[in-house]
Structure formats: structure tokens, C-alpha cells
Amino acid sequence: MYWWGPFVLIAAFIGMEFVAWLAHKYLMHGSMWFFHEDHHKVNGELFEKNDVFFLIFAIPSWLCIMLGMMYDFYVPVWIGYGIAVYGIAYFLVHDVFIHQRFKWVKQIEHPYFTAIRKAHKIHHKHTSKEEGECFGMLLFPMKYYKEAKKYHFNKSAKA
Known about the structure:
- The chain has six helices and no strands.
- The longest helix has 27 residues.
- The protein has about 160 residues and is mainly α.
- The chain has one domain.
């Protein structure tokens, strides 16, 4: 029927990493710092003001799906699905895996996941909105992957 739909979904998912990077660097660490600030401070609460960004990204997803379905135009529907899948990945990678807000996964022994955690830890070493680095979730500077790969290689060589 619409064989191209999954390709649009994948493109939207990949595009969301760049949208999220831009939003994180220029909005969350800019004019919307008020909402993001508590995310950079350990408070032990289950919910943070930062969680408002879930809605900011969920609304376009919902609108694309709803309006695309209403007007029988499926490109935005697949874009909405791509945004939603990125949101699920964000929840699982960022909230569950990195920050352990839900204790479902302890550690994944793979260089890519080690590098994700390291890049995010580097991001969180800055507690103010200035001087940030590593604003992405799934993409990060290659130096963290190389370090993680070396770490895992040395770890397996010792075993």
C-alpha cells in the first residue's frame, strides 16, 4: 500500500536526533532553562520540570498523526510515528538506561552504550546553562566511542 512509509518513519527518527540536539542546546540551555535546570541537579524526585519537553515533542507527533489521518495524507502520519518512536527511544535510553529513573536496566556491556553514558555524564558535569557539551542522545563525539572500545577491549583481554 504505502511501501515508503517506513522510510519516512526512519528519516523522521534520524531527523529527530538533530532536532533534539538543537532544542537541547539552544532552547533547553537557553530561553527554556527554567524547565531544564532541575534535570542538571540531582533531587531524587521521580518527575522533573524538564519532563514538560515530553509534551513539547509529543504534540507535533500527535498532530501529524491525527491531521494526516483526518485528511488522508500519510506522509505526516509516518513523520508523526517517527517522532513517537524517537520519543520511546528517548525514554528508554535517557530516562531508563542513562539516568536510571526506572530501575529496569543496569548496564549494557557494549562500547556504543558505554559511550552514550560517558557523553551524557560529560554533559551533566556542567550544572549551569552555559559551557555545555554533548547535547545529543544517540550521537556523540567519536572520541567517547574510541575510549569505550578501548576499555571493552582491555576488559575482555584481561578476562
